Amino acid sequence: MSALIRERRVIADRWVFAGTPAELPAQGDVLVPLSLWSAERDGLAARPGRIGVLLAPADDPAALVDDLPQLALVAVDFPQATDGRGYSTARLLRERYGYTGELRAVGDVGRDQLFYLARVGFDAFALRDGEDVAGALAAFADFSEAYQASVERPQPLFRRRTNGASSAIAARNRRSSLAALPHEFNFRRPDPIG
Hints:
single chain, alpha/beta, TIM Barrel, 2 domains, 8-stranded mixed sheet, 16% strand, elongated
């Protein structure tokens, strides 16, 4: 069984995957593919337990827009580590569609992807079998800064640096200009020469 990291901690996975109606448990948290959710939406929503939907790489996340408030989990499948469509899916779900529930990367998910997956909005990661969990947790600290904007940090690095530098320069200039002022002001006009 693969390890599950959520919010940068290893946790137990309480979700059961059901690919067909026959596999659905009577109760509890269940993860179903988009095709099953689309076909059985009302029945799934009425059963006891939370519902999650698994999106395949070719699935359009826009199909879930109206249902997102009732979904506790959206899982995005990465059949191969080189398939980057899930990154776009995650960013759409978070930024365009406003999804705030658990967003989980599943499939061929390894240590070298975690930092980047978190930047596009994933907060849970089902690691591929055999992946070193301690090493995977360390991946979140691989880079101290990222240049590009992301779901995590909407301002790119140059804006963060500019804003911080502008504030520091403005504060320094205020201190300098105050120090340059004479302690006593002389408001007398100079005597005219002549």
